[in-house]
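Supplementary Methods, section 5.1.

A reviewer requested that the exact input to the structure prediction be made available. We therefore reproduce it here, unchanged from the version used in the analyses.
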Amino acid sequence: MDTLVLLTLTGLGLGALYFLIASGLALIFGLMDVLNFAHGAFLTVSVYTAWRTAETVGGIPGLLLAAVVGTLTGLLLAAVVELVLIRRLYGRVKEQILVTVGLSLAVPALVQTVWGADARPFPVPDALSGTVGVLGARVPVNRFLLIAVALLVLAGIHLFLSRTRYGLIVRAGVEDRAMVTALGIDVTRAFTLVFALGGALAGLAGVLGGLYFGSLSPHQGTSLLVFAFVVVIIGGLVSITSVALSALTVGLVQQYANYYAGGYGDLAVVVLLAAVVLSRPAAGTGSPLTRLRRALTASRTRSAGGTA
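The structure derived from this sequence is encoded token-by-token as follows.
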């Protein structure tokens, strides 16, 4: 029982981390139709600036300041990328992919040149380095912090999209940009805000990722980005809540498979992704079960016609 509780809460913490990364991806792609492969690069730069801040200050104040610095780093980096590069490429998908993939390769290489390729320990305050007892299991305290932050981010995104003027402008601009522009509303400024918000979420996720793993490396953002894309694909872009549920599912499956299936957590996530993609009906085709029924019905019809 205690093992199951530990795996479940650890999986929820990992899922919360995946959600923090995937939420920024889902915002940028879902609202702006930009496939941002540089999202992991934002995370990498942010976690290194946060690491330097946490090491300098130390303790809980150092971690709080590191979270602010990391979030602002991701926000500013994303805003600069949108203003300088992405703004000229709206509606040009191939160019967007080439630019963001180039950034995803160049930025970690630059970070590796400055700070080296070796992983570095992330300073975790004593208050968050211990464990707490839950139903007989000793669960790391920082897992609960990740879950709490993910819930706050989920609520904040819901409020931004449904209750703020910019959220409404962005959603309207995606549907009909020309009409919104004709009303005298600057859609590009709203798009910059959304892209910067996605970068801020990547920066916050980088800081909490350093807290979760206890270390950081130049390619940490790239590896986490892979799972974030899996989460977005499984959850779809219907709502941010579906992305959150997908992230929790991926985190739990990975943790359970790592323990019960001999360390094949990553493979289990790939199998889950394949199962969801293959079972998801294409537009106008229905589910696989519906298609199978149609095929069987057609086969029986042909057989009856041949007998007659």
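The chain is about 80% helix and 5% strand. These observations are discussed further in the main text.
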